[in-house]
Amino acid sequence: MARNTTLLLLLVLKLFMAVLLAAWACIWIIRPTQSWKRSWHVAEDRANATFLGDYGLTVVVYCLPVLAVATLGYISLHIAAKKDDLRKRRPLMPAFTNPLIVSSPVGVLSAAELLGVALFIVFLAWTYYSNVSSDFKKMTPYKSLKLNRWQLKMMHMGVRIGSLSEACLLLLFLPILRGMAVFRILGVQYEASVRYHIWIGNTMILLSVLHGISIMFIWATKNRLLKEIIQWQATGRVNIAGAIALATGVIIWITSLPQVRRKQFQLFFSAHHLYMVFILFFLIHAGDRHFYLVFAGVLLFALDKILRIIQSRKQTFLVSASILPCRAVKLTLPKHPCMDYTPTSIVFIKVPGISEFQWHPFSITSSSNMDDSELSVLIKCQGQWTTDLYDMLNSMTDAGSDHPKSIPVAVEGPYGPATVEHLRYRSLVLIAGGSGISPLMSILQDIASRNGAMERSPTKVHLIYAVKKVQDLSMLALISPLLLTHSAELGNLHLKLFVTEEDGPPFTAEKMLQDLSRVKTITMNKASPEGTAVPTPEGLPWKAAITALSLLLFLASLIILTHLFVHQEKKSSKKKNPSWIGDLLLLCSLAIAASCCTVATVLSRWRKSVDDSQELSHKHHELAEMLPDKVHGALQTHEIYFGCRPNLGDMLAEIATGTGDSEVGVFVCGPTSMQEAVASFCTRHNKRLKREERKLKRSFNVHFLNFSL
Hints:
16 strands, four-stranded antiparallel beta sheet, Riboflavin_synthase-like_b-brl, alpha/beta, about 10% strand, Rossmann fold, 25 helices, globular
């Protein structure tokens, strides 16, 4: 009965969210039409006769639906998280999320992603055509410029290209929300949604550059380029603010290119903080009325940033660190027993001893079901920051101290999926390359911790792991005790290891795991203040509450401030107020709303500080001590290959033949070539099953876990 009530409540919430989103999308679609513009002017006049005002009407129409969907989404995720059977429910259309285009300039694309991109392009084309065709009918001349017909047309076309950038800016911040992630409502993880931010950002910069170039070209033809570009108008568009916003956006885009980001991460990280300059000058250039159109995304991003700062301002300390032969380290951090996270979750880590500003994301390799007082991450040396961390820890072992002083770290997260996808399947195929094994470790530990306790949990697990060098296999040391002693808890586990660039001796997988599991472990000084656990992030109910609260506070502040400083002046004069007044009132209202939410969050955390400050009893044991004396026969069916790459197509075909389950979950974390190989086979296999119309369809559902920043 309780379960049916919960399902009904979730259904109502989802229907309400769908209606709000559909209404909001329809508003954006009909916004460029003349009928909407006429109706909107009438609605603004009526709103000005009330306390709400035309500015309040704009906020309600364009911001309220997005923030209401976010609020209801957080509530629905919270309700579903209370029920394990709801967290692993099968999606309505799994084929819609499976790969459709295997090889493309932007990687593997699903049908859902392709449809979303196509609809967004159609929306941009429709908006541009509708606006430009309307402008051409009016052809309103610019008073300060004496333009002929073609110049006037080009000017209008350039202005309308800029309006397309607004639509991109509205969506730009949504994919990179961490704690306030709205994409979790759609079942998309943070690390997967980052690439949507990249796509939207590239589109926005392209449109902004075209907008700026086309307008500046017209100015140049009239020999007024410098005069127009440095002009700061009292009302309307502020040209110099637009030029500054454009220059800032181009700088952010250039430093975000893979060639720059991978070699100069500090430059990329620092330049990205210019987003505050970009937003500010976009507001000054476009005006408050246009800024309200994109305000929902900006507000959610501001709230997300506030929660992250509050969580990470309290540092924690390492419990231990393990140094692996493959120039990788395992960091173990203390956590509160109440902190739960789903497998494949990530945390952002900052080590002040290396950099006071750099945050880096890493997959959690542990399971909160298996260890309630610690969490661990695996970090491979792949850049300057990770190399500095490795050298710092390695110097501790060279110093010879048994218990060196602990290292302070700051942590954001964990951020993970709302659903536990791997529990949907009876058969699992886990495929990893190099450090891509990290998120799969958390899946294996989660399966082992449940030990078949749930009605539907994996009973067959195939782990395919490819590395370049033998020493890279040492990353399995983190779960070798699990593989060697708890293989029964993992169901029918089959392990295949591939060393692609070395020819090795005829070792068994069992012997290899035992040899590589003897790693150097540093146990930090107990006298260090390590009782400070990783701060627990705010719960979903609180995120829903501050989302609704922030909108109400912003709208109330905006109405009050406008009536105090603008309303009386409007009654006595028809002269327009300077644009900076509206901009300033908007910024003040945002500051008030953000400040109130910050104070409320700090007070809420302070009330829970008594529980969070309890002493944690650490259960850390060195990996070497966990290895049993007798593990013979545990891994006799597992295989290791040298000097060759895994033929993923043949291996998946063999698995499809050998399993009796209708669906097989394939989880991939590795390089692009590995993703494309898996996606290519699974797509062909599923299409063949559909053509043959088999009664028992052993289809593959693919999940990509790659994260690259």
